Amino acid sequence: MHAQSRVRTVLHSLIDMANDRRAAIDPSADRPVYKQLADLIRADIEAGKLTPGQRLPAEGDYVEEFGISRDSVRRAMAVLRGEGLIVTELRGSRVRDAAEADVIQVTPGTQVTARMPTEPERKRLGVAEGVPILVITEPDGQTRLLPADQTIIETSGTSDQNG
């Protein structure tokens, strides 16, 4: 009987923890559900609960854990991809390793814009669906397309002509 009591106590603790986590997302709040989920995942990454290279739970796991729609999960993942915190591949999403990003130096006069890729661009660049691309146009007119979730832009020089 004593062992059953301990098992019951552990189960109740696990259920309480799951309910606490589910309560972390409030559908009646002013902040959209997908942003609340993105906030929770971001906090887990920043706290080291999710480490570089670690796979995130599947969409369905988030749906079940938080009682939210699959669309909300997808939108949260898109936010985190846009922030460069996660990478989405065919097998799911994982926490990005900072060393994975390409660092691109741009000079004054270079235009950098972000947009969603066309299907051929997405396939050519190997970009997951929902990930934007960066269009980098140099002053000489040369244009490069790069996955936004795998690129860090650094500026060099100054646009202030007076020093």
Automatic annotation (TrEMBL):
Residues 31-98 form the HTH gntR-type domain. This is HTH gntR-type domain-containing protein. Pfam families: GntR. Keywords: DNA-binding, Transcription, Transcription regulation. One of its GO terms (biological process) is negative regulation of DNA-templated transcription. SMART domains: HTH_GNTR (SM00345). SUPFAM superfamilies: Winged helix' DNA-binding domain. The keyword Endoplasmic reticulum does not apply. The lineage of its organism: Bacteria, Bacillati, Actinomycetota, Actinomycetes, Streptosporangiales. The keyword DNA-binding applies. GO terms for molecular function: DNA binding; DNA-binding transcription factor activity.
